[in-house]
């Protein structure tokens, strides 16, 4: 998760004491700040999801905006959730290219490449907190946070500032 990658970065930069514990087939970072990091990430996720919903609800009811809102919501759950498995990146492959944004596909590509640099070949090195893999993970998580911001901005650009209704939606083409 983003919280774990921040704690790992603090471990390398400031000597924060952390351990990696395996439980039920999952590797988890334990530290004095783990609970706080989890809480902050959850609060950010709730705030971001509310912002996405509000911006979508206040704008035109268009398919492109719906796709942008869906992509932003999925990316938000990934970026700020308690678990961010590398396989989750596949969820964005189907959504992000459909969003009218120049930067979002580039951020997705960067996040995919960064994920591939440590997973699966170097996963166990990450669990040993090896610096190379730790920084790649941190960079990947920051790329996904930037992707959330880009998707949100793409959604917001399409907003007219008025509340849309389903009657405003264009008819479906068969």
The amount of helix comes to: 55-70%
Share in β-strands: 5-15%
By secondary-structure content and strand pairing, the structural class works out as mainly alpha
Tell me, what's the shape? globular
User: What's the arrangement of strands in the largest beta sheet?
Assistant: 1-2
- The quaternary state of the protein chains shown equals single chain
The total count of strands amounts to 2
Mean pLDDT rating: 89
Radius of gyration, in angstroms, nearest whole number: 18 Å
- Helices and strands, in order, run as HEEHHHHHH
**What's the tally of helices?**
7
**Termini distance?**
41 Å
Largest sheet: number of strands, sense, barrel closure = 2 strands, antiparallel
- Detail the poorly predicted runs: 160-166
Task: Report on this structure.
This protein is mainly alpha-helical. Helix content is 64%, strand content 7%. It has 7 helices and 2 strands. The protein has helices spanning 2-14, 34-58, 63-80, 89-95, 103-118, 123-127, 131-157, and strands at residues 18-23, 26-31. Strands 1-2 form a two-stranded antiparallel ribbon. The protein starts with a helix and ends in a 17-residue tail after the last helix. The model is unreliable at 160-166 (pLDDT under 50).
Summarize this structure briefly.
The chain contains 7 helices and 2 strands, in the order αββαααααα.
Record keyword descriptors for this entry.
174 residues; mainly alpha; two-stranded antiparallel sheet; globular
